[in-house]
Amino acid sequence: MSTKLYIRYMVSLRCKLMVKEELKKLGLEYTVVDLGMVEILDDITPDQRNMLKENLIKIGLELLDDRKSILIEKIKNVVIELIHYSDELPKVNYSDYISEKLNLDYTYLANTFAEVKGITIQQFIILHKIERVKELIIYDELNLTEIAYKMHYSSVGHLSNQFKKLTGLTPTFYKQLKEKRRGNLEDL
Fold it and tell me: Structure pTM?
């Protein structure tokens, strides 16, 4: 019988490696280590659980216990994986995608998320889309039109307005700041 554990702040490949290392230290065999979730082969003893909890805190992660926290982490991880680690965003609405991925009613998910996080799932998605846009601007492989298309914005104008609303800067100015910083570093 396997046991699933849910971990907060586990959002990168580096986090996954660190969690694998902690599991190994405690002699816990795992079948899955994914963003926000670990599946171990056997039951975990209370001592092992406490040690894992303490060790995760030391590396900036948190073992979750209550159902609402676990659900919120699942929602966040679906969004993060979708926006930051998928090559293609889904052709369906985000609400349908998240609901289907977690096999739960979206209204329930949205209400729980808003109650616990204080923002809507849609606002969380927008925050992450803008962070992804910043990355794409910095990578400098795509122009703004291509970025808008890739991130499913209806137009460059829509992307620019949302970007400015959240960052206070236009995407073009943000890109110029990046280039200016690079220039300043080269002058050192």
Answer: 0.72
Domains (range + CATH), the chain: 3-65 (3.30.70.100), 69-179 (1.10.10.60)
Phi, psi of 17 (to 5 degrees): -65, -40
**Looking up tokens 């899955």, which residue turns up?**
32
CA pair distance 159, 148, nearest whole angstrom: 6
Tell me 168's DSSP state.
S
Evaluate whether 136 touches 122 at the Cβ level (below 8 Å).
no
pLDDT in tens, the chain (188 residues): 778 888 988 888 899 999 999 999 999 999 999 888 899 988 888 899 899 999 999 999 999 888 888 899 999 999 999 898 887 777 778 999 999 999 999 999 999 999 888 899 999 999 999 999 999 999 888 999 999 999 989 999 999 999 999 999 999 999 888 777 655 555 55
Q: Any long-range contacts for 77-81 (C-beta under 8 Å, 24+ apart)?
A: 77/10, 77/11, 77/34, 77/35, 77/36, 77/37, 78/102, 79/121, 79/124, 79/125, 79/128, 80/11, 80/35, 80/128, 81/35
